[in-house]
Amino acid sequence: MADDGDRHRQSRLITDEDGGFDAERARDESLPVENGELIDTDELADHQHYVEDRGIYDERNRVNDLTGKEWKYATKSVLAEGYPPDVQHDLRSEHGGQKPPRLCAELIGRFSKAGDTVLDPFAGVGGTLLGASFCEHDGTGLRKAIGFERNERWTELYETVLTRENEERRARGEAPLAEQDLRHGDCADLIDEIADDSVELLLTDVPYWHMDELEQTRNERETRESKLGSFDGDGTAATESAASNDTDSGTTQTKAEWLADMAEKFDRFTDAVASDGHLVVFIGDMYRDQSYEFLSADLARAIESTAPVTLAANLIWYDPTKDLHVYGYPFSFVPSMVHQNVLVFRLDDE
Ligand SMILES: C[S@@+](CC[C@H](N)C(=O)[O-])C[C@H]1O[C@@H](n2cnc3c(N)ncnc32)[C@H](O)[C@@H]1O
Fold first, then answer.
1. What is the Cα–Cα distance from 161 to 138, expressed in whole angstroms?
2. CA trace torsion 80, 86, 87, 90 (10° rounding)
3. What is the pLDDT of residues 296-346, one digit of tens each?
4. CA 337 / ligand 1 centre spacing (Å)
5. Mutation test residue for ligand 1: of 94, 159, 246, the one with most atoms within 8 Å of CB
């Protein structure tokens, strides 16, 4: 086994003009480099192996397929990326709450392994399902995805999106995206079809709380009064965007009813998730009645109160491409919501 002296001698053989270690050249010559240093692969433990260009992979990794170097990046609590409209965005945006498939693929890569099953009980037009299919082409390996959606308009739109996207991909000579299993119906019924412990990741974007009409009218009036105009936006108010995101439901609920409904549903969903799996949940906070509605915190506590899970993280998806509006100016500070929360739960030990 090479000692430290050997390793440094070896590194010195690949030097740049200034006599320093030339990591780029070493990489070009397919030598194992991590953190700017040449790795002596003989020194790796039995459970480690070097993956070209990606770093050292630890076979004990139960969470994902990332190397140590990739893992370090993937634990960042902020995802600061705006995803340009793609994958038939014009069609998918008929659904006000659609999520970028590539953002979903990024989260799926962090919280599952190739071949795992991902479940989205509130699937909409299939951001999660498309993300699971993308994983195959991004080199992280296909995941099987199952989605539930009670509005047939969205299940049909997912089919149209996939057909059109794959026609375009074939025309460009690219491999098609795998078709995933989107089931039409109420998740409260469909969840019974999923065997216990058969899902490694539940990734979803919950239906928003439908405020009762009185609350909503008062809220919209206050928003109109405080809104002087928008710099460059589409005129959507912070409060309205969240409330109207899920356009298919006419029912209204108090916040307590919404939280109780979510808590009960997640308790049932959790049975489907394997013991070392995760639940990852998108939820936007709201601003209403001149105060911040910490929906993410409320939802996290509600889910923890019924389901056998513990909140492991609150990731922030910051979308730098979001339009800014003038709310409250010049009298009152009103936030322009350019982020969403991504709650990460792990299952409690039995
Ligand atoms: C915020 S959207 C999800 C959007 C999705 N992430 C996408 O990329 O299209 C929530 C979805 O849950 C659906 N939904 C609400 N309640 C449901 C239920 N009980 N069963 C199944 N789907 C439901 C709504 O119709 C809505 O499309």
1. 19
2. 120
3. 999 999 999 999 999 999 999 999 999 898 888 999 999 999 999 999 999
4. 21
5. 246
For residue 125, which atom of ligand 1 is closest to its CA? 9
Q: What is the pLDDT of residue 247?
A: 44
Which of 90, 122, 191, 205 is the best mutation target for the ligand 1 pocket, counting ligand atoms within 8 Å of the beta carbon and taking the most? Answer: 122
pLDDT-flagged residues of the chain (< 50): 1-10, 226-247
Query: Given this model, what pLDDT does residue 9 score?
Result: 46
Domain at 78-347: CATH architecture: 3-Layer(aba) Sandwich (3.40)
Q: Is 7 exposed, middle or buried (0-12, 13-18, 19+ CB in 10 A)?
A: middle
CA 120 to CA 180: how far, in whole Å? 11
The response to whether residue 100 sits with its C-beta less than 6 Å from ligand 1 reads no
CA distance 296 to 342: 8
Q: How far apart, in whole angstroms, are the C-alpha atoms of residue 329 and residue 333?
A: 7
What predicted TM-score, i.e. pTM, was given to this entire model? 0.84
Which tens digits make up the pLDDT trace of 100-118?
Answer: 999 999 999 999 999 999 9
Distance in Å, CA 23 to ligand 1 centroid:
47
Give the three-state DSSP class for 342. strand
Structural domain boundaries in the chain? 4-60, 78-347
- Nearest-CA residue for ligand 1 atom 14 is 122
Say what the pLDDT of residue 219 is: 58
Q: Which amino acid makes up residue 319?
A: D
Q: Is 124 in the pocket of ligand 1 (CB under 6 A)?
A: yes
Q: Is the CB of 125 under 6 A from ligand 1?
A: yes
Q: Is 185 left (phi over 0), alpha (psi -120 to 50) or beta?
A: left
